[in-house]
Amino acid sequence: MSESRQKRAQKCVSCGINVAGTNAASFDCPECGTGIHRCSKCRKQSNLYKCPSCGFTGP
Ligand SMILES: [Zn+2]
Ligand SMILES: [Zn+2]
Predict the structure, then answer these.
(1) 3-state secondary structure of 57
(2) DSSP of 8-52, one letter per residue?
(3) Fewest CB atoms within 10 Å of the CB: 5, 9, 10, 52?
(4) Ligand 1 centre and the CA of 11: distance in Å?
(5) Does residue 52 come out as left (phi exceeding 0), alpha (psi in the -120 to 50 range) or beta?
(6) How far does the centroid of ligand 2 lie from the alpha carbon of residue 56, in Å?
(7) Residue 57 pLDDT > 80, yes or no?
(8) H-helix or E-strand spanning residue 58
(9) Which ligand ends up closest to the CA of 24?
(10) Could you say which ligand is closest to the alpha carbon of residue 14?
(11) pLDDT reading at 22 higher than 70
(12) Cα four-point dihedral sign 53, 33, 51, 35
């Protein structure tokens, strides 16, 4: 019942805000499988995302 199960920082790949606890979209990079998060604001704006690991960009 604690909040410590998610210790990794979850940052929006587009604007860099902390998306932990928000309804951000989370998915895996199709190239390297790295977990990617995007906040609802950037999702609405359909900002491109860029994988922090391999540099893959996508819609
Ligand atoms: Zn964002
Ligand atoms: Zn990647």
Answers:
(1) strand
(2) S--BBTTT--B-TTTT-EEEE-TTT--EEEE-HHHHHTT--EE-T
(3) 5
(4) 8
(5) alpha
(6) 5
(7) yes
(8) strand 57-58
(9) 1
(10) 1
(11) yes
(12) negative
